[in-house]
Amino acid sequence: MQGKTTRRGLPKVAIRYTWALLILLLNILTPEAWAEDVINLEFGGTPGTAYSAHWTVENAGQIREYQEQDGRVPARHLYAGDAISGTVTLLSGGQLTLNVEKSGNRSRSATQGRGSTLHFSVR
What we know:
Residues 102-123 are annotated as: Disordered. The protein has 123 residues and is an alpha+beta fold. The chain has helices spanning 12-28, 31-34; strands at 38-45, 50-59, 62-72, 75-80, 83-90, 95-102, 105-112, 117-122.
């Protein structure tokens, strides 16, 4: 007799064990254990507002570059890293708010008007 499977043919018991393992890991890795390295980059403001952004994330001496040519509000990105810095340019009308947070350090900025630019840096 075969066990029950999902629509994609995966054994349901494997899915249950995967969820149990994920929950166990999340309970072990308390926010205090991982929050120090987490960088939260959050774009808010008028929904649908268009922007372009370029930023770098430094982690253990390595630098990675990221670019978003046609981002839309709202958006959120999470990274593991020591520092983040970048520039955001408003491509349309509307208001753009930018919140960057790491280890309790926070940068909050807002702008409106097409062509407006924000610069940010958090360590």
